[in-house]
Each structure stands twice: as C-alpha cells, then as structure tokens.
Amino acid sequence: MTSKNQLKTRRMSDSTFGFLLMVPALLVLLVVIAFPILKGIYASFCDYGLKELRKGIFDLKWNNFANYKIMLQNNQIFSYFKNTFVFVALVVVIQLILGMGIALLLDSKIKARGTLRGLMLVPWTIPSVVTAIVWRFMTNSSYGVINWIAYKLGMIPTLDYSWTLQSGSAMALIVIAAVWRQLPYMMVMILAGLQSVDKSLLEAGTIDGANYWQSLLHITIPSIRPVLITSIWIALMANFQMYTIIANITNGGPVGATTTLSIAAYNAAFQSYNFGYGAAIGVVWLIVLFIITMFSNKLTDKYSEDLG
User: Fold this and answer.
1) Are 283 and 261 in contact (CB under 8 A)?
2) Is 36 contained in some domain?
C-alpha cells in the first residue's frame, strides 16, 4: 500500500510540476491573445470614439447593441460580407486546384523536381507588402508589364487600362496576388500528404485495372483528405483575415467593390475613429471564423476516424 501511495503521490507531483511549467506560456497567451479579444468584445458595446480615447476601457459609456444596430442598418455591411466571401472563395478554390496540380506534378518522376520545388517556394518568402507593391507595378497603366502582355493578347482594350478602377478587374487583381503569395504553402501541404500515401494501395489499384484518374479519385484523395481539410481551413483563416494585399493594391476600391470585413473594420476604427463600431465588425468577423473553425475540426475528426 505504501508503494502505491508513493507512486500516486509521485504522479500527482509530476502533473503539478508539468502544469507549473505551462503557467508562463498560459499567461503570455492570456495577455497577448485573450485580453485583446475580450477588450474588443467589450468595446463593441460602448461609445468608443476619438474623444474617449484617453479614457480607460472600463470608463467607456455602455451603449448596449447600438454599434451592432448601426452595422445592420448600414446597407454597405452586406456588400462587405459579400466581397469577403467572394474573395475568400475564389482564392481558396484556385489555390486548391493549382496546389493539387503542382503537387501531383512535383510528386511524379520529372527532371529537376528538386529545383522546381525550391522555385515554387519563392513567392512564400516575399512579404505581403512587397507582393502588393510588385503587382501594382506590374499592372500600372503607364509601364506595367502585365498591361503590355494583356494588351498584345487582346485581353484589355487599351494599354493604359487601370485594373484598380474597374470593380471586376480590381477583385481579380487582389485574388491573383493573394493566390500567387499563398500558393506555395498549399502546394507544400498537399505534396507532404501525397508522399505519405501508402504506395501498396496504388499498386493494388493498378493491378485491379484502375487508371491514373481512378486511383487519384478513389485512393489518393481519400488518403490525404485530412491534409486537404487542414490546408483549406488554414487558407480560409488566412484569407478571411487578409488585409495587407487588399489595402496596398485597391484599398477597398473602386467605390467599395473590394472592401472586405478586414478593410471595413480598419477604416471604421482608424480612419473614422469609431473604435466601437470597428470592434463590432471585428466581433462579427470573429464569430464567422469561429464557426468555420468548428466545422473544419468536425470534418477533420470525422475523416481521421474513417481512415483509422
């Protein structure tokens, strides 16, 4: 009995020691992540403008759901939601298709695939601000190389065509820039999944008469489904939060055609100095991200169990 008690005490002390080791990290997370989120939620229920900036967060005037009512009464907010979902959907779908195609190519026995893998990672190493500036230069109406190519191919009516002054081309431009910047990550994730597929399953499929596309649809993709779901979730999170590329290419224009929730929240808080209203947009934005995260986790758990 004594040895059992000693073992139990030792296990408890090990658990306590492990918890104590985690305390500093938990405190950092609390200060860096939890506190700003809670502060933002609280501010969304308050009158928080430029004149209240010097007040403490708990000295603000509580206005219940006034900021949320203003947001719902503002017809533009629905346009911002639509722009956000259109932007995110286009970027993620294009990333997924191109990422899968490139990953399959690099997983095959082609020459110089190591060099190609390295080159494919280059856009990922470039900061988002630089990416935005480069794409603005390449589509400049006076000297942009993309304008010259597009004009020669008959894709645009004039050489001095301004991509950011047309709603359709402005959205296309930020989508292309975002895909170019993030595609390497999607490709790497899918490539890692492809290299973990059990080759014996593919060989068995070939013996049974399955062609390349049948093996891809019925063996490869089901095997990497958890990787695909995780990659899609990360891409969704990154693009729902996308600010830098949009702000530096179109800044939400023309006439709000590319204004997403991130741009709207920033403009409300730091251009109109209505921090409470900006926080309200941020809270709704946070709820959307939370729902997507929960849905993604359920899908991942489901398919992980199926594979297990």
Assistant:
1) no
2) no
Strand partners, 46: 62
Range 260-263, long-range pairs (CB < 8 A, 24+ positions): 260/80, 260/83, 260/84, 260/87, 261/80, 261/81, 261/84, 261/285, 262/84, 263/80
- Say if 13 falls within a structural domain: no
Cβ 164 vs Cβ 250: under 8 Å: yes
Residue 158, CA distances (Å) to 131, 137, 215 in order: 25, 17, 47
For 134-184, what is each residue's pLDDT tens digit? 999 999 888 889 999 988 898 888 888 899 999 999 999 999 999 999 999
Query: Can you give the pLDDT at residue 308?
Result: 55
As a whole number of angstroms, the distance between CA 11 and CA 302 comes to 33
Domain count, the chain: 1
Mean pLDDT of 83-106: 95
Please check whether residue 113 lies inside any domain of the structure.
yes
Parent domain of 230: 60-307
Q: How far is CA 4 from CA 12, 13, 14, 16, 148, in A?
A: 12, 14, 15, 18, 80
Lowest mean pLDDT among 7-11, 56-60, 127-131, 262-266: 7-11
Mean pLDDT, rounded, of the chain: 87
Which among 286, 235, 243 is positioned nearest to 36, based on CA atoms? 286
Residue 302 belongs to domain with CATH number: 1.10.3720.10
